[in-house]
Amino acid sequence: MKKLLDVEKSRSEHYADNQRNSVHRSSLLVPALPNSDVSISFLNHFLIKRGITSVGCKVTAIDNNGKRITSRLTTIDQPRVYTIYLQRDFVPNAASFLVEFFSSENIFIPFPAVMVNHRTKNALSGVHSFNRVLADVFEDDDVNAIHVQEAAIDIVQNPGLSTFFVLAAGPFNLQAPITLRLSTSDSELSHSLNVNIPRFTQQLFELRDVVPAWSQLQGILFIDQPDQKLFYGRLFVGQIAKDGSFVGNHSYYDSSHVEGEFWADNNPSFRTYPVIQELDALIRFYPIMSPSEIALTVIFNSSDGKQLGATSTRNLLSPSADFFELDLRKSAIEASVDIAAVNSFTVQAIPLSGNTPTRINHQIVYRQSAIESSINISLQNYNVLHSKSKVRTSWGQIVNSPEFDTWLSIINDGYEDPTSTVEVKFFDESGYLGSETVHVSTRSATTMKILTMLLRNNLTPKGEFVWYEIECLNYFLTAFSISRHIKSNHCTGEHSF
Length: 497
Prior knowledge:
Helices cover 9% and strands 47% of the residues. It is mainly beta. The mean pLDDT is 92.
C-alpha cells in the first residue's frame, strides 16, 4: 500500500507541474469466473474530462496456463460509453483478460475508471477496477512499499449464501502459502493454504470450503496474500448463492499496524449516504484504521439536510477484535426517528484522542432478503486536498435493464454553499443521451429511479449500461448507483469515480 498522505503529496506535485511523473498507461486484470459472463464498461473520460483524443484500449485474453491467446486493440476516440463483452464477443474460454489503456498524452491516473461486470442468471456484480499490472519497477517501489493484510471482508450469515474471495496472480506464477486470520470476540483463529496460480489468472475460494467452521462465526477476516512484484491487487470478495449467482466488491488495506496515517488535526471525518425506502441499509466498520479509538455517530437527515435525530455514540478501537454493524431502520426506531421521513444519513467519526486517521474505511450495504450490495468506501475529510475554484468531474455506471430496479443518488457533503445545483449528464453507447438538473442540499441526497427518469425525459438508451457525469465546484459532491434484480432481489452497487 501507499500511505494516503503520500498520495496527497503526489497530487499536490501534479497540480504544481502536471507533466511531472506523467502516466501513459493504465491497466486492470479482469477475472472470468464460473457461471458468469464478464464485460467491462467505461465512459470515455479521457476525452470528456481531459480532452485526450487518442487512446488505445488493448485487451489480451489469457488461458488457464497464463499464456496469451490473442489481443485486440480498440481506439477510444468518441464521447460515449464503451462496453466490451469479453467472453461473448472476444474469447469464450479465456481464464482472464488483461486490459490496458495507452496514450502519448498524460492520462494522470494509472488506475482506469472501468467497471467490471459479471452477469449471472439472477444477478449482476458490478465493481470498479481493483487491481493492475504495474508499469515498471519504479511504480512497484511506490505502490508496494508497505505490505499489509487484506480486510473489509463481510462474512455472510445467510445459510443460503456463502462468502467467497478471489486471489489473482500478477505477471509471475504465484506459488506460496496464503494465511487467513479470523479475529472474534473471544479467539484468534488462523488457517494457511498453499496456492499454485499461473500468472495473470486467479482462483476462487469459498470460505465454507476452505474453513467450514468459520462461515458460521462473526468476526474480522484478514487475508495475508503473498507479496507480488509488478502487481497491485485487492481481493475480489463477496457473496455467492447456491445457483452460482454472486455479487462482489473489493477488499481493503488493514492499516491497523501502520503508523503515520493521520491528518494534521482531529477534525471529524464523515460521509453521507442515501436512504432508498425499498431497500434496507446497513453500515459495517472493521477496526482496520491506523492505531486509534474513534467515536462513531450516525445522523438522520431530512431532504433539506436538517438533522432529524442521531444514534448514540459507539466507540471503535483499532486494532482490536471489535467491529461495528448498524441496521439503519432499527437504529432509527431506537432514536425515535420516522424512517419514512429520512432522506439520508451521515456517518461521523471523531478521534477520542490524537489526530484523525486518514483512512477510515467501511462498508455501506443495501439489500433486500438476498445477496447484498456491500460497497467498500472511506469517510471524507475536509483535509483532503481540494480546490475551491476548479470544477470537479465525477462519473459512474448505471444498469440499464428491465430486469433491474436502479437508483442514482447525488450526495452533498460540501461546506461552502447550502445547496449545490448540478446538471447530471447521461451517456450511452451512441454518445450524449440527455440530462437532468438536480438541487442537493448539504448533508442530503437527491435520488432518482432510473426508469422513471428515462420515461420522464423520453429517453431510450442503447446498451446494457448508461453512464452519468456531473461537474461541480463542490469537491464533496459524490454519487451512488444501486440496482436490485426484480425477481431474485440480489443487489449490486458502486460509488462514483
